[in-house]
Amino acid sequence: MAAPSGARRRPLLLLLLAVDSRNIQLCFQKGFWSFLSFLELAGLMHGASAVFVVKDGNGTACIMANFSAAFLTNYDTNSGFKNVTFDLPSDAVVLNSSSCGKDNASGPSLVVAFGRGHTLTLTFARNATRYRVQLMRFVYNLSDAQIFPNASSKEVKTVESVTDIKADINKTYRCVSSDQIHMSNVTVTLHDATIQAYLSSNSFSKEETRCEQDRPSPTPTPPVTPHPSPSPTPESPSVNKYNVSGTNGTCLLATMGLQLNITYENRDNMTVTRVFNINPNKTRVNGSCTAQLVTLELRDEDVTLLVFHFGMNATSSQFFLQEIQLDMTLPDARDPTFKAANSSLRALQATIGNSYRCNAEERLRVTEALSVNVFRVWVQAFQVEGDKFGSVEECQLDENNMMIPIAVGGALAGLVLIVLIAYLIGRKRSHAGYQTI
């Protein structure tokens, strides 16, 4: 006996409903993940935050931190430089090398590890009223192919910088806004950060010190006309020789004197300009060499970090200074942490294999607040043969300075020639007036 038509259609209808339900679910999932990707690309979504705690031998917390972090850097591959971004994963852990510090020997430090040998370290310091993250250090391992695919080097790199993360004693540092810390070729961005060191209990304080980014912008008021008051200009800085070497030998050879011009607001809200000479006798030199980037790092007792990045243009076969970065502390400034950087320079330029030389003083403008004066510079980057400078390419300033005495000499010679011609003509006419009859 044949089944009723409705009974025959019911399994088919259920099957169609199941297929449609499955398609709807797949479409929803695809749309949901596309929406999440859009949020992440738009900067509205960050990696998951995590809580990190450092305890002393008695089990009492001395550091607590809750934040998410994103990393931006570049590395060398066989096909050139590649930019990479990655987040601090949720499974990051606090290493045993973290410490609550010792009374006068060292400050507390938080060391967070993730991936294959990557660590982010926050080292704290304090005075009578405030504490701060005095130094942030990031160590990353280029052999981690998941983050750095096709890296031409398997080195472990270390970068570090001072920060503006600071808060009152017994208060929590709170910053909902993004806070970027620039460390050489690495930028670390903290999101929704809650940090406290030197805790008085095993929990965050309910009182907060908010970061500058979270504070509302003050209503602008007419300035009181504080004019920049330049400080006395010191003598010209000493000229020193700087070398940077890598696995393939010397990649940077330079002699120069360096001077910093910094404009800032002091604690009296007055704009001042100070000049600092880089003292070669108190300067530590470091650097690195890659196929397309040469880095010179200088540190001394005043300058926390002064970095020069030299790049190259393969098309024109020229090297040039492409970036200057400065991190230093100004004790009399309203904000003692001074940072400035410019990655779009094109100075000290010469053909690869040759050297650039300039005896005249050159002023390199980094930002409105910072310029670097370079004295008697002689530099060669990338291809340096036998630790000796190649053929010299003189700067335009030296050529102009040479033209001045040449022009003056030419003008004097022309004047003498005009006087001589006038004298000869006058003498000839005077003889013509006394001819013999």
Automatic annotation (TrEMBL):
One of its GO terms (biological process) is positive regulation of natural killer cell degranulation. Keywords: Cell membrane, Disulfide bond, Endosome, Glycoprotein, Lysosome, Membrane, Signal, Transmembrane, Transmembrane helix. Its main location: membrane. It holds the Pfam family Lamp2_2nd. It is found in: Cell membrane; Cytolytic granule membrane; Late endosome membrane; Lysosome membrane. The chain crosses the membrane at residues 402-425. GO terms for molecular function: enzyme binding; ion channel inhibitor activity; protein domain specific binding. Residues 404-435 form the Lysosome-associated membrane glycoprotein 2-like transmembrane domain. It is a single-pass type I membrane protein. One of its GO terms (cellular component) is synaptic vesicle. Residues 204-242 are annotated as: Disordered. Residues 217-235 have a biased composition (Pro residues). InterPro entries: Lamp2-like_luminal, Lamp2-like_TM, LAMP_CS, Lysosome-assoc_membr_glycop. Disulfide bonds join 175-211, 251-289, 358-395. Residues 52-198, 237-385 form the Lysosome-associated membrane glycoprotein 2-like luminal domain. Residues 205-215 have a biased composition (Basic and acidic residues). The keyword Protease does not apply. Belongs to the LAMP family. PANTHER family: LYSOSOME-ASSOCIATED MEMBRANE GLYCOPROTEIN (PTHR11506), LYSOSOME-ASSOCIATED MEMBRANE GLYCOPROTEIN 1 (PTHR11506:SF27). Interacts with ABCB9; this interaction strongly stabilizes ABCB9 and protects ABCB9 against lysosomal degradation. Interacts with FURIN. Interacts with TMEM175; inhibiting the proton channel activity of TMEM175. This is Lysosome-associated membrane glycoprotein 1. It comes from Equus caballus (Horse).
